[in-house]
Amino acid sequence: MKKFKNILVLAAMAEEEAAIRSLLADNYVGGRSFGKHLQIHAHDFRVGDIEIIVAQSGIGKVNAALAVNTIVENQPLERKIDAVILLGVGGSIVSGLEIGDLVLSTAVLQHDYFGSLEFGDVRMLPGDLILRREETVGYQATMAADQDLVEMIAKSVFELPVHKGVVVSGCEFAGTVARKRALHALCDGALLVEMEAAGVAQICRKLNLPFVVVKTVADRLNPDDSIETDFVSCLQLAARNAAIVLKDFLAIDQ
Length: 254
What we know:
By secondary structure, the chain is α/β, with parallel strands linked by helices. It is built from 6 helices and 12 strands. It has a single domain, classed as Rossmann fold, CATH 3.40.50.1580. It has helices at about 15-25, 60-75, 145-155, 175-185, 195-205, 225-250; strands at about 5-10, 30-35, 40-45, 50-55, 85-90, 100-110, 115, 120-125, 145, 160-170, 190-195, 210-220. A hairpin with a 5-residue loop joins strand 2 and strand 3. The longest helix is centred in the last third of the chain and has 25 residues, at about 225-250. It is globular. It starts with 5 loop residues before the first strand and ends with a helix.
């Protein structure tokens, strides 16, 4: 199994980044900014012989992809990034996932990159263009996560229920049960919807970087109140659970 030494950990929201930094506070090294124009501020941590860069990208797949590319391109060659972990929260699109449950991505599907054609809607890998029905035979629109990262994280988590599956991602906060069910139906094994994974998966494929999406459930498929209320009220707990996963993962070889 691979050994990862220089890991970029990306979080979309301030609450997610704060939870990570809080749990890794004893391992803090310092802060720095990446990029001449974007000025993405990041924080360095060291756990044993593993170096971790933690950065907040902002919400959305474009922000996430920009952050990954900017940090990777500006990291010194002797400390080259060898893995990317997208950490944070998302929404369950299946029954049975509860607040705080962990979802590990086996793959990512960008749900809002598709062709609406005469023979039906066709989801595609970002950058591809499919126009004929015969091109869809055997075609896979999902972007696979690194299996070693998935298994290493799964084996390190003892405090939370862990579910492996496809993370569905796009520029949309899915706030109704009907919409979540429709997103689940797009792909076998789809468990969670969020807004950054598609950008991270796409840029990591281009850069040939191992990646994994690690997200905890902040809103259920069938909440007691509204999905929005679920998300707001459970964000802090879910963000902390995601950070705990990272700390457990970093401790396995120490």
